[in-house]
Each structure stands twice: as C-alpha cells, then as structure tokens.
Amino acid sequence: MRRPVTVALAAALFASTLTTMSAAADLSPADFVDPLIGSAGDGNTYPGATAPFGMLAWSPTSTRGDQTSTGAANGYQYDTTRLRGFSLTHVNGAGCNPGAAGDVPILPFAGDVTSSPTDDTTDAVYASNFSHADEAATPGRYRLGLQNGVTTDFAASERTAIGTLAYPEGKPASLLFRTSNSLNGSEDAETHIDPANRTVTGSVLTGAFCGRRANGGVNNRKSYYRLYFTARFDQPVTGAGTWKDATLQPGGLDQTGGEGYATGKDRAGRGSGGYVTFAPGSKVTMRIAISYVSLEGAERNLRAEQPAKSTVDSVAAKTKQVWNTELSRVQVNGGTAGQRIVFTTALYHSLQQPSLVSDVDGQYLGMDRKTHRVEPGQDAQYSNFSGWDQYRAQVQLLALLEPRVAGNFAQSLFNYAKQNDGVWDRWVHVNGATHVMTGDPSAATIATFYAMGVRNFDYRGAFDSLYRQATVPRPEGLQDGGCPGQCVGQRPNLAQYLVSHYAPNDVCHCWGGAAETLEDAVADSAIGHFAELLDRPREAAELRTRGAYWRNVFNPETGYTQARNLDGSWVTPFDPASDRGFAQGSAAAYTWMVPQDVSGLADAMGGKATAVTRLDAFFHDANGNWQLKGGGPLKYDPTNEPDIHAPWLYNELGQPWKTQETVRQLVNSVYTTGPSGLPGNDDLGTMSAWYVFAALGIYPRTPGTGELLLSSPLFPSAVVRPAAGAPIRITTSGSGKYVADVRRDRRPQAGWKLDASFLRTGGTLDFRLSETPTAWGT
Question: Which residues form the signal peptide (predicted)?
C-alpha cells in the first residue's frame, strides 16, 4: 500500500531543507500531526483513527504470540508488527500493560475459518504481520496494508467509524469479530450475525483496568461497563459462523461467552466471537458504531453521525476539519519542521481526552450501573480521568483551550461521584471507579477548573461534595483492597490523618504515607483556594492550613520528605533513592512536590541558596552535565509526574534563568519526532500538555489557581485562541533561551508570575530574549 505524504514523511522532506515553515503555508494544522509519536518505548500512545474527545478509536491490537496479551500497553507498540485485529476503543498513554479498553478486535482474514480463533492461543493462524511502510496515520484516519493481502482504510467520527476492506483476488474473504477479547479479558460477550441484513451486532462485558498488575490483584478483575456495537456492510454476506472456546460452529449466528480476567494459561483458549465471509476479491465498506448504553444507542449513533451517503473520504475530511479547529486553538509560527510536528502532535495528544461516553441522545451509563441523561445545561458526559497524572498540566490546558468541554467534564465527574455514594474516584475509566494511584486529584482538578474561569457546572455542589470527601471519614478508608496501586479508600484512614496531620505509613491503608501526605496537601490547598473564591472563609482557612501538612513529612535531619510511623518516628532505614513510602517515585523526586509552598520548602531545606544547589544537582551529574533522561532515582525523571513541575521551581527560588535553560533543554532533547518522541507514558495527554505549555513559555503554577509561571518561548510567535475567551498573543525578539525582558500588553512585566486575571482578559506577552543569563525576574 503506497503511503500518502503525511506528517511523518513531511518531516523528513522539510527538516533537511527548511529552517522555518513559511514555505509550508498551504498545510493545515492536522498535517503537522504524527500519531505515531509516542508509540515506541514507554509512550503507550496509539496511532489509530479518532476524533477530538472521541468515544471510538479504530486502532490495532498487536500480539507477540500470546492471545491474552498484546506485548504493549493499550494495544500497540511500534516494534510489534503483528496484529490480531483492529479494536474499537483505546486509551492514550496509560502506564500499565495491558492498560485498558481494546474492545472487540476485528480481524480481516484472507482465508477460511476452519478452527476456533480462540483455540489459536499463540495467534499463529488468526493474525497478520504488517510493515510500517504500509501504514499511514493522520488525525481521524488510519490506513494499513496487512501481509495477508487485505488493505484497510478507516475514518472515525465521535462514536462511529467507516472503512474499506479490500480483499485479495483468489482467496477467501473473512472478517472475524473477537468479541470477548478485550485487553483485560471479559466476563461475558455476545455476538449476533444477520446475513440477510448484512449486519453483525454484539456486546462485551468488561473492565478490569490494569487487571493483571500485581499491586491491584483480584480486586481489579471486575466488570464495570458493557460496550455495544453494530456493524453494517455494503456487500452480501456469503457465509457466517461462531465459536466458543475451542469449538467452531460453521453456520452459527449467535454465540455468548467471556474469557475471564486472568492471563496466560489461566485464560488461554476461552472466549467467543463470530465471523462473516464475502466473495473473494471483495471491497467491503463497513460502518460501525458503539454505545455504552444499548444496542439501540449504537444504532442511533450510527444514523446520526453517518448519513446514508457517507464515505471514508467524507468522514475523514469532516473529522480532519474538526481536528483543525481544535489544533488551531494554538497557532505557532516559525521554528523547524520537527519542532512544529512535535508541538502539534503534543497538542493532538492533549485533546484526545476526556472521552465521550454519552450517546447522541444524551444517555449514558452511570457509576451506579443505571442509565442516566446528562444534566440540564450539560452537553455530554465524559470520562477517562487519569487524575493523578492530569491534574498537573492536562486539565489546565483543557480549561484554557476548551473551557466548555472542561465544564462538561467537571459535571461528568460530579455526576459519577453522586452515583458512587459521594466518592470521587482517582482514575475513572468509562463508568468504573478503578481507584488507581494516590491522593485526591479530583479536588485539585475541579478547583483548578473554577480558578481558570470554568463555570458551566454545578461548582457549589461539587465543592460541597469534595469538602465532605476531605473531612468525613468513610469505612473503605480502613480497607487494604487493591493496595498498594489501587487502594479503595479515596482519603485513606482520614480519621487518623486529621489527628496526625500526616498519613502514618504503618496504618495509612494507602500507597505510601509520604506520597499520600504530599498529594493530600496539594489537594487541600487547591480546594482551599476554591473555598476562598466561593467566599467560604471558614473552609478556606481550614483547608489552607492543611495544605501545609507537607511539613510533617519533611525530615530536617535528612533534608528529604520521608515516611513516618503512627508513633511519629521516621521510617528507617532511609535512602533518598528508595520509593519506600512513595508511589512511583523516590524520596529525592517527591521532595520537590510542594508547588503550593515553594518558599516554605526552600526554608525547610536551609534557604533558597541551598535549595538551588540541590535542584542543580537534581538536573545535572557531578560534572555539571545535563541528566534529564532518567538518570536514576536521585535525578529528575521526565517520564513520570511527581517531579515534572521541578524545572519551573527556579523561578520562585530567585534564579529564573535556570528555569529558562532547563525547560529549553528538556524541550529540545527529551521530546522529539519519531515513534520514541515521548519521554514516558503520555498518561492521557499529561506529558504532551507539559510540552505545549513549555514551548509557549508558560506553565500552571499551583493546582487550584489560575496563575502562570513564565519561561522563554520556543517559537518566534504564537496565538492561543480559546474556544471561549480572549486570545493570548506571544511574541519573541532577539535570540537565545534566556529572558531579558517581558512586556504584558506593552507594559513591563517584572516578575516570573502572571496572575489569574491574564487568563480571563487575554492580551499580549512580548519576550525579548538573550544568549546569556539575565537578572530579569530576580
């Protein structure tokens, strides 16, 4: 299959000849997106077709010879060039294998189905190799030629996809629906074939986010959503059949059966599905839609989003236009081809979530497993909230660029909390509470939305609910189910926390007492700001005081954040490189995680000069060389969230030029073009959002506020055009990575901080850059 000139090829063509993109003025923003960025290494992105905030994502599910695994988180890994189907749902950059979703892999197969595909436990028969030379990914469209001779070309709308399957001449033409084979397995599945009406319908009952991970155990292997699908073909169905476990039923039209949630031998050979056949050499157009509510909902979605005369080209063009609208919210000028591609792709990844879960009629399945409709004034229900990750950068970018979507998302999370006995879950997938990670990221997220001007949600009701979660202990807070990675208590052992003013490591029922304390202090500080904005002075004072509880896990003897026991003693032996008392990070990394009180942290370390010296050592080796690509547990880790704000701390420590040089070094060396272009898990757009902010020279200062920190912009000029609100124009003059001067609306901007009014009023930021460090902002 001949690849079109897409972004990946454009990069190669332009980068060798252009230093700016003035010659590429005829390209739209979507033409600068390479969906394959982050698909190698630990980026865990997927390359397939999806719309902004879309429900459906048509993308491969790969295999390395184990039917119960993909060899990759979230279904796709660039170096795995064998697939067992194209799945209908995916999550961008979740950090565990197998990840989540990957529902209903559909395999075009050039051959007769002579045995049960589920019995093919090593994917030796019912799978196909492919070459990246036959792969083309662009926003909203994905094309792939399989080594078995079938070529595929699919485009996606929000809840549907349409595509062509071109089968080779002289070979049987089969299409397999592996209905039960979600990434994490399934409790049940059903497949129904109607040859006369050229349709296949069905559903899968699944969930089990990261269900095979050791630190969640059997607590995670549970169902929480059913995905329904309907597929229609434009060519006659010449044959059909079904299978369950090892039994093939040629001619069968209906089948049920799940796989379970185990892996390997415990699950191999289990499951059900069905297949249809077409005439050899057929070129089949398939239209498919999904719903989390009902089969009728999927059919309504298909009718609404794919008019009768829709084609792959027309749907692809419409979705590309929608992507161009979203990507045009931040327009950058100048820079190299590679920089434009990295930036626009980061913006693309940032705006894939949250994901729609409501149908076109507003119905959705709630966390109580009942059908609901969106609230009055709410446009849609959204989900896929990777809270521990997203509250640090992605939610701020969403609030800035798409405040109405942010408000709908805030209302969605509140809706789920009301349906979940008042509990705001840390990591919501579809309509399931997964409990993943630590802290109370919902508090930080909702407070941030409000501080950034988002108002289209029940913010008073949300505050009251979040305040109750932060102040009223619940029985599950004393349980260890799912610990350490997915502890069920959202405020673990809150009663003790309110007495100790820290999370005692030996009785916290959490994933590390030190990490829990730091996370809760950030969350409490954030909703304290929220209370202040709502004119709730009593709650504001209480929560702002709790925002300082980080001090109770800072050990002045070691100079690091350290876990403590219930009796007040420090957990020993202590090693700053250890993760004892922490979640996915070391004491050395977590010690910097006090964005709400940087000056206080510096004082605890012995003053700003001492803090700067330690921060220097965090980013450099003993010889002063940069150490920015994961140099061990004592160094900065750009692949995970606890320390991603650390480069910006120099601003508040009195040496802003070091923020400028550190951020620029990260932008230029850690984020690149190509499949390995992301430093680590994209974590539902978090790492990508970090890059977008960094390249613009602005960054959110503290969760729960609308303040921004400044650095040096990467591009000569940029315009941010929110979907609602005033534009922000950023320009640079001079060269270099250091800031010599900044003017806000033509007036001198003396400090490194923009107050929240800037987001409300918009305006201009004019940077004058220098080749050498300056005293600006000190």
Answer: 1-24
Q: Which positions ≥6 away from 644 have C-beta within 8 Å?
A: 392, 393, 638, 686, 687, 690
pTM, entire model: 0.96
> For 43-71, what is the mean pLDDT?
94
Please give the Cα distance from 353 to 349 (Å, whole number): 8
Strand segments (E) across 11-63:
49-50, 57-62
Q: Which two tokens stand for residue 72?
A: 């990759």
Per the prediction, the chain carries an average pLDDT of: 94
The dihedral through the CA atoms of 711, 544, 516, 385 has a sign that is negative
> Once rounded to an integer, what is the mean pLDDT over residues 229-240?
98
Distance CA 538, CA 614 (A): 37
| pLDDT at position 289 | 98
DSSP 252: -
- Report how far residue 303's alpha carbon sits from residue 308's, in angstroms, rounded to the nearest whole number: 8
Distance CA 315, CA 320 (A): 8
Which segments within 167-217 are labelled E, that is strand? 173-177, 188-194, 199-207
Close Cβ partners of 382 (under 8 Å, ≥ 6 residues apart): 53, 354, 355, 356, 357, 405, 408, 409, 412
Task: Kindly tell me if the per-residue pLDDT of 6 is higher than 50.
Answer: no
User: How many Cα atoms sit within 13 Å of 181 on the Cβ side?
Assistant: 37
**Residues 1, 151 contacting (CB under 8 angstroms):** yes
pLDDT value at 19 more than 80: no
With beta carbons less than 8 A apart as the criterion, state whether 709 and 663 touch. no
Does residue 426 register a pLDDT over 90?
Answer: yes
- The residue among 768, 666, 754 whose CA lies nearest residue 716 is 768
Q: Rounded to an integer, what distance in angstroms lies between the CA atom of residue 502 and that of residue 520? A: 9
Question: Which two three-digit tokens encode residue 243?
Answer: 């299978």
